[in-house]
Amino acid sequence: MSTQHQNEAILEEEVHSESPALYKVLLLNDDYTPMDFVIHVLQRFFAMDHERATEIMLKVHLEGRGICGLFPRDIAATKVEQVSAFARRHQHPLACIMEKN
């Protein structure tokens, strides 16, 4: 009987455990990166269609930053590094950062 009660307590703990923190991946506006390049980045690294990528690009352009997505920490960090490296390879100063949600 105590084993069953113990198992129920473990199951309750698992159900109530917190999900991992999510991080926002953001692009920051600059005066040099072409808008078409930003759209390409959003499509390539965040699997956005052209329409959604254009909306986010305009948000970055008009508001100074735009959210590309919410991800667990490791995935967010990988996306930031991939975008930053891709921008550097193409000689654009596009900044990509992550913030805890």
Provide the spatial order of strands within the biggest beta sheet: 2-1-3
Tell me the fraction of residues in β-strands, as a range: 15-25%
The biggest beta sheet is recorded as: 3 strands, antiparallel
Structural class: alpha+beta
Q: How does this structure look, described?
A:
- This protein has 101 residues and is of the alpha+beta class.
- 57% of the residues lie in helices and 21% in strands.
- The protein has helices spanning 2-16, 35-46, 50-63, 73-89; strands spanning 22-28, 65-72, 95-100.
- A three-stranded antiparallel β-sheet has the order 2-1-3.
- Helix 2 packs across helix 3.
Which descriptors apply to this entry?
single chain, 4 helices, alpha+beta, 57% helix, three-stranded antiparallel sheet, 101 residues, globular
Concise synopsis of the structure shown:
The protein is of the alpha+beta class. The chain is built from four helices and three strands; from the N terminus they run αβααβαβ. Helix 2 crosses helix 3.
Secondary-structure topology with pairs:
Elements: H1 2-16, E1 22-28, H2 35-46, H3 50-63, E2 65-72, H4 73-89, E3 95-100
Antiparallel strand pairs: 1-2, 1-3
